[in-house]
Amino acid sequence: xxxxxxxxxxxxxxxxxxxxxxxxxxxxxxxxxxxxxxxxxxxxxxxxxxxxxxxxxxxxxxxxxxxxxxxxxxxxxxxxxxxxxxxxxxxxxxxxxxxxxxxxxxxxxxxxx
Length: 113
Known about the structure:
The protein is an alpha+beta fold. It has one domain: Alpha-Beta Barrel (ADP-ribosylation fold). The protein has 3 helices and 8 strands. It has helices spanning about 10-20, 25-30, 40-50; strands at about 5-10, 20, 35, 55-60, 70-75, 80-85, 90, 95-100. Strands 1-4-8 form a 3-stranded antiparallel beta sheet. Strands 3-6-5 form a 3-stranded antiparallel beta sheet. Strands 2-7 form a two-stranded antiparallel sheet. The radius of gyration is 13 Å and the shape is globular. It starts with a strand and ends in a 15-residue tail after the last strand. The relative contact order is 0.26.
């Protein structure tokens, strides 16, 4: 399936690392699953949902590591988005990258943006 990505605050990630798991951001908890994006979806997710927010990190996870709790469901424009129905084990995060704001106020996601 490949890699999937999560944008969240540095404080949320620090708490998740300390707990050993990420239960979700406020919107995730409200929706009942943890929202992820593919590489092709991540820049638009950053633009729509994180513009103007600083102190963000970008997590990279191997989709296959999440097992049956990961479901691909239609969302924005009918695209299939990865949704995790359960907590994210912090040990499954492959890389954590700073996501500084660009000149347009949108978080920059390294080679994906």
